[in-house]
Request: fold
Amino acid sequence: MIRLHGTALSGNTHKVRLALSFLGKSWEEMPTDAAMRASDDYRALTPMAQIPLYIDGDFILRDSQAILAHLAARHRPGDWDGRDARERGQIGVWLSHAANEIQNGPAFLRLARRFDAPVDEAHALAITTRFMPVIDAHLADRRWLVGDRLTIADLAASPYLALLGDAGLDPADWPNVAAWTRRIAALPGFPAMPGWGAVA
Reply:
């Protein structure tokens, strides 16, 4: 049985939930709060002591983007991780955005404004302000980030952009992004997450 360490409100954990659910896989949720992540037992599993953490038998993998890449290569090769070199490169761009601009922008704003985390809000807002017009324009004439179908680019980039309200931002300011996150939420098997639904 696959075990997934994370928390209910973690967008990074939800990226993996999306993949597992859309793949029709069963898994065991392992609620992993800050105290548990600080424990020696957890650090023995992952030296960064972060979530999500994916465990399948004796295989242990950390980092949401890496887990998505693993699941795509194992279960949906080509379809989810690119059918050719061009698509794989384009998907890589959005995985990088998910780990950089989205994480350091909207995700950090959400940490500050919903969870009162000590975040440089001005810096996070500056990154958000620079990035959001880019992805909104990209989605103006397409349904998915890369190609004609859902890929791990969409899974990696969408959770924190579906939760802009938690970051104190108005999703209506980026209508193409809002429509895209609603499309993902309307897919069969979409796993529920507080704040993200098919209807804006």
